[in-house]
Amino acid sequence: MTVQIPDDSDFTSFKEQCENLDGWTARYNKGGVTVWCRDGEETNSVQKLKMRIVCKDVTAETLYDVLHDTSYRKKWDSNMIETFDIGRLTVNADVGYYSWKCPSPLKNRDFITLRSWLPLGKDYLIINYSVKHPQYPPKKDYVRAVSLQTGYLIQSNGANCCTLYYLTQVDPKGSLPKWVVNKVSQFVAPKAMKKIYKACQKYPEWKRKHNPNLKPWMYPEQNTLPCISLSELSLQRADSLENIDESGLSEEKTHISDDDEGFSKES
């Protein structure tokens, strides 16, 4: 299978997955946040997680900007260790790196992903999946995780309100204990959604003071990333990566602070 840039059908399919609840099981529904889980259709496949939050007093455009703005992410995403863009493929597709902290003693994870985005009427979509880039091989201090499909759907609900869906199917690699999976849906995922919401409320004021007119995701002529070719990339398959066993780690010995945001959150 070769690396391909998502087309309109891929975005339409992703939107349908976000909106359709058939086959999904609600695991959390409180404080305006709903979390659903869906076990993989195949044996030993990776579970899908879907979240939804209604963001009052936040426009769809603002939420879209927050999810794109790497400089601002460093302000609100305390779970992130490092993120940077590697290069652009088209006016609405690029390749980037993201690493995030896992609760000790689990090892930290990182990704290389191909990301693509599309404003679609009153909707905004951002989707990604993992790829290999020859200049960014796995690091010895991280576990290279695999995003099979991850993304956001933002739907406008009027002049100053929107709904955010976040759908992810990530193989974190390593044999994680069952309590970790449960913790993600019951604790980590809802906190992550609420954190994005709070970041959106503060973004307009922050952006006014930090390059207010710089939005390369909206204005491609502002994009200064080097161009890269699809031929430089290959699909990142989970079976080609080291699989460490963390299944024996006990919940009691694992520290999860208020700032820890999870195992499957990247943009």
Overview of the structural elements:
A hairpin with an 8-residue loop joins strand 5 and strand 6. The longest helix has 31 residues, at 178-208. Strands 1, 2, 3, 4, 5, 6, 7, 8, 9, 10 and 11 form an 11-stranded mixed sheet that branches. With 267 residues, this protein is α+β, with helices and mostly antiparallel strands. Mean pLDDT is 86; it is low at 253-267. It is globular, with a radius of gyration of 18 Å. The chain contains 4 helices and 11 strands; from the N terminus they run H-E-E-E-H-H-E-E-E-E-E-E-E-H-E. Helix 2 (60-68) packs across helix 4.
Taking Cα atoms only, what radius of gyration do you get, to the nearest Å? 18 Å
- What characterizes the major β-sheet? 11 strands, mixed
Distance between the termini: 23 Å
Strand fraction equals 25-35%
Mean pLDDT across every amino acid position:
86
Helix content: 10-25%
Number of strands: 11
Number of helices: 4
Stretches with pLDDT under 50, minimum 5 residues? 253-267
Q: Helices and strands: which structural class?
A: alpha+beta
